[in-house]
Amino acid sequence: MRAPVYQWETLRDVLTTCLQQGIHVLLYGPPGTGKSYLAKTVAAAANEKGDFLHVSLPEDTMSAEIIGHRVPSASGAWEWQDGPGLKAYRCGLPLVIDEIDHGSAEAQTRLYQILDRTAITLPTSEIVPPADTFVCIATMNGTPDTMNPLYNRFAVRIEIPRPLQSMIDALPPRLQQAAKASWKSTDPNMRQWFALAQLENVWELETAAELLFPGRGVELATALKLESSIEE
Q1: Is the sign of the CA dihedral 138, 51, 198, 11 positive or negative?
Q2: What structural domains does the chain harbor?
Q3: For residue 139, pLDDT beyond 70
């Protein structure tokens, strides 16, 4: 069953409550709709210091990037260094995992342990139990495979099918309507619009728009200029 779509305030409250209760949450949907932004915002607000750990899983990420590995010390000896996943697990901090459906088979196995809150045995023979306050918010692009064991480790799964209103509100006013029209008709990805807001201060609007929206940038820039002149 498809998850309902929430407004920003509701989403924030739902995720905050889940973190407080130790419930893992999966956010999924098209790229650029604000999944990572939402996850990091809520995770940062989960404690007074704003502490949380983050890891992104590009294709074939190894478990060492999540759990940790040995590094040379000043004395020349090799010492264990926790990765972001294990540090969050050990210290009881929120863990944000982007692209959780990627990563190697080895990394996926470690993620099962983390999400199941199973004590982790390190290559050093140390056994690390999870802290009581450990919890995870994960993101992925597209629709999750319900047969994937990772999916079933998230009790709460929320679809973010279009950009959050808070993201649109963060754009310069003159770009907001065009951005909203764009995701309604073709592409929900907001990253190009934020890049346009930055580049139009450096380049001509037409040049920046064509770089970010190939084949329709000039038309878009013309429409934006026309709209600005009407408002003036």
Answers
A1: positive
A2: 8-159 (3.40.50.300), 168-231 (no CATH)
A3: yes
